[in-house]
Design brief:
It is a single chain. The chain is mostly helical. The protein has a domain of 40 residues. It has three helices and two strands, in the order ααββα. A two-stranded antiparallel sheet has the order 1-2. It is elongated. The protein starts with 28 loop residues before the first helix and ends with a helix.
Length: 91
């Protein structure tokens, strides 16, 4: 398989100026988010959250409950295997 070399004097264009900067997410956060989703998958079923009635309203309410707990200084929730930081659950 041959590699294409860029031509001299030609600049490529990529329209991504107003898109989220995904490269700013610390790599250590991705496994943490996966752990939160795994707890949900084990409790209910994988991707079950996509089928919850009134999904937007119910998950907005859940996120607000976690944010409220953080504001009260309640930093973590007990889970069977580990302690889930509320900030991850609110995300």
């Amino acid at each position: 398989m041959s590699e294409t070399k860029p031509e001299q004097g030609i600049t490529g264009v990529k329209y991504d100026a107003h898109k989220p900067m995904m490269d700013l997410i610390p790599p250590l956060m991705e496994p943490e988010v996966a752990r939160v989703l795994t707890v949900g998958a084990e409790k209910y079923s994988p991707k079950n959250w996509r089928h919850v009635p009134s999904l937007r309203e119910r998950y907005t309410a859940a996120a607000k409950r976690h944010i409220n707990a953080l504001q009260q200084g309640i930093i973590a929730m007990r889970r069977p295997v580990y302690i889930t930081p509320r900030a991850l659950c609110a995300a």
